Task: structure prediction
Amino acid sequence: MPYVVLARRGRPQLFASVVGQEHVTQTLQNAINSNRIAHAYLFTGPRGVGKTTVARIFAKAVNCKAKENAEPCNKCGSCVEISSGRSIDVIEIDAASNRGIDEIRELRDNVKFAPVTSEYKVYIIDEAHMLTLEAFNALLKTLEEPPHHVIFILATTEPHKIPATILSRCQRFDFRMLTRIEIIDRLKELLMQDGIVVDDDALSLMAENADGALRDAESMLDQALSFSNGQLTAEEVSGFLGLGSYKLIDSLVESIISRDSSKSLDVLNSLADHGADLLQCLKKLVSYFRDLMIYKINPDLIDASETRQQRLNELSKNISVERIIKIVRVLTQTESEIKQLGYERLNFEISLIRLSRLTDDSIPIDKILNKLQEIESKIYSGASLTLPMSEAKKTDESNSSFMTASAEITETNDEKSEQKDIDPLISVWTDILNKIKNKCSPSLNAILKEAYPISIDDSTITIDFDPKFKWHREQIEDAENRRQIESTLCDIMGKTIKLVVQPKNDPAVINNHIKEIPTTQRDMRQDAMQDEYVKMVLDIFNGRIVEIRK
Result:
């Protein structure tokens, strides 16, 4: 007798045998018992969770003459024919290969004929979302008002692709993904029938890789039984799934957490030697760190074996949620790069090195704002302020280019009287910039914004630049550029204005201007640039001084 794979041999024949879909099976049984059978149903959900199986059981139940509590007897002629796929009254259609309007027209012409041996003619349309729009339109009227002896069951993994006009004519049932425990229990039932012993860790590994699909887990088990010599271990399952050694993945996670790039690369090399599929290993890493993250937040949400939960508990003590998020982002980005560019091993190795050099956990934004308020209050009060360099470094790495800082320097009341003579100077210079911004070339206007005034009188405007704006100074000192600016100033003010750039380190200019005005805009800017608190704020936010006020 030919071998029948587990996915077929273990297919449930009763509603009670269906795993994890009680909300669907109970509703269908109640409908049969109360004779409230609808003419169209839509079964949606992930692959391998029982949609087609439940559709077949339902077809048997509505046609069974000896059903009990809406369960088919599986002994009468109708049940036997449907179970074996020989019933001419239960028609299964693969919409992926029969998706055109001609096939649906043929279906529409056949529904008017009464069933041959059964009470109901049941059409099971699998992968219904693959039908064309024209085919859906052809089915529409028939689906809305079919003969009383016809039941339509549409099964799909992508209900969003079903037209709303079709959805509105069906009773919808959403099948859910199965839990790890449900899958393991079902696999154990199948193994008991054959008298095969398999490690719980091996079954758990298959259940985790099945992603909630029982059919996938059954196919893995079938393959694993062919791979093994009668007793299956987690190491063997890991090998045929392309994950290399089960323990090596765990070791790789541990080395990433400990920032040991040398060990990480060594483990990756061992995985490659085991013939592991590196892309699958990468996905497994993402899943592992996802479990770590969820475990740290709420351990009850983790569907894992006791041994796995103990391991998660050990590893979670040495890593924070913030760092896990960073690690997952690097790994998912690496997965995307591998799919686009290839170079699996190289990109994997680069990601492991990056993970070992990830910065410490970032400071929450509310803590940063509180620290800035503290800096501001202490600057105004003149109190001493200390900020650990480690925190400043963290904040800088987490918030580079966060904002442009506007530094304000406050001075004592004795100095305010001296500054009164400077405020008008700043005001006049700002007014000049506003007037010429639409008359000068954009490049010259941008350069002038980085200058600050030294003095302004009826015939001369003297400006200067911070030492870091060396290029700006050179552009203004260029004769042609300066001529354009002076010409613009002359047009605006109605008189000849000369623009002078203060020579660097010129003692005469220093004596003429700085000594006459004890606190100039230049002094204030230089003082600001030397102030430890201001430098710290500029460094944290990668900012620059825009304006200085008293």
User: Anything to note?
Assistant: The chain has four domains: 6-174, 180-240, 246-356, 413-530.
